[in-house]
Amino acid sequence: MESLLINLVSGAVGGNVAGGLLKNLNQGTLINSIAGIVGGGLGGSILSMLGAGGVADAAGAGGLDIASILGQVASGGVGGGVLLAVVGVVRNMLAK
């Protein structure tokens, strides 16, 4: 449960950071956060399914040591940023 919460929170942060860095894909704080939360959850799930070893195994096992927490934050943040980028591109294409 803790790993899911870490993924969701870091996904929301990742979505807002990506929106701040990529001004043309920024959708506003609310949509950035929602896309980030969904992307963070998906990123964490994908990382735990891949089980690539090392940090991925620790994160997938749901441990709360520093390596697993950092892995969860990274996967959630990247997942949130990537999903926000996808949402931004799709919304920009639909607006044209």
Automatic annotation (TrEMBL):
> What stretches pass through the bilayer?
6-22, 34-54, 66-90
Organism of derivation: Aliiroseovarius halocynthiae
Q: What is this protein called?
A: DNA methyltransferase
Identify the domain of life.
Answer: Bacteria
Which UniProt keywords are listed? Answer: Membrane, Transmembrane, Transmembrane helix
